[in-house]
Amino acid sequence: MTPEPNRADLAKDPARVSGMFDQVAAKYDRTNTVLSLGNDRFWRVATTRAVAPQAGQRILDLAAGTGASSVALARSGADVVAADFSPGMIAEGARRYADLPNLSFVEANATDLPFDDDEFDTVTMSFGLRNVDQPKKALRELRRVTKPGGRIVVCEFSTPPSALFGGLYRFYNDRVLPRVARVVSSNSEAYDYLNESIRHWPDQPTLSAWMREEGWVDVAYRNLSLGIVALHRGTNPS
């Protein structure tokens, strides 16, 4: 019997969001590639370059999903921990990448990470901060587990600065994406939530301000794909 689709809402209850991602785990990466028109691969490359992983480093990839972003980091020889609060995502990633000895999968809640203080050289989070019910607390937790002088890289949907392009983007999200999601996703209602969460997510300067509030310094961002996505960076002060 097929389970009833689980749809999160803007309250972002962790159990509901986790359950929603459990249901889309098997087709998650393929669906993202289709709905982003292939841009997800470009965003992943840009994030990997911003992290600049090196052999001997310990890196936390939070909200790693099935580990596609984590694999790109692990290929450098760094010790990578792929963490996510969806057990379904973690199980799928561990199954796919069991042959990589320097990549481990851990179930973790972004607001209460199961790691020691100052454990990681770099922490990164792609398209996950938006799904956390307390994003500022998550930024605080990420700084706690980052070594002094270590870095953070956050890749997240954002606000296109061009009003014209922003209108086209909203049209795609509101009219086109839901129809495509019904064809390619195992839980199309999850992508209705995706639209809502993007629409209500703060713009680039606001997220940068949140990072500074939680103690990160040298905070900066770079727009990708005309501002559909922004790559935020910061440093944990020594």
UniProtKB/TrEMBL annotation:
InterPro entries xrefs: SAM-dependent_MTases_sf (IPR029063), UbiE/COQ5_MeTrFase (IPR004033), UbiE/COQ5_MeTrFase_CS (IPR023576)
Binding positions (S-adenosyl-L-methionine): 66, 84, 109-110, 126
One Pfam short name: Ubie_methyltran
EC number(s) on file: 2.1.1.163
Pathway: Quinol/quinone metabolism; menaquinone biosynthesis; menaquinol from 1,4-dihydroxy-2-naphthoate: step 2/2
Keyword vocabulary terms for this entry: Menaquinone biosynthesis, Methyltransferase, S-adenosyl-L-methionine, Transferase
Species of the source: Microbacterium hatanonis
Reactions performed catalytically: a 2-demethylmenaquinol + S-adenosyl-L-methionine = a menaquinol + S-adenosyl-L-homocysteine + H(+)
Biological processes, Gene Ontology terms: menaquinone biosynthetic process; methylation
Entry protein name: Demethylmenaquinone methyltransferase
Classification via PANTHER family: 2-METHOXY-6-POLYPRENYL-1,4-BENZOQUINOL METHYLASE, MITOCHONDRIAL, METHYLTRANSFERASE
Gene (UniProt): menG
Function summary: Methyltransferase required for the conversion of demethylmenaquinol (DMKH2) to menaquinol (MKH2).
Superkingdom of the source species: Bacteria
Family to which this protein belongs: Belongs to the class I-like SAM-binding methyltransferase superfamily. MenG/UbiE family.
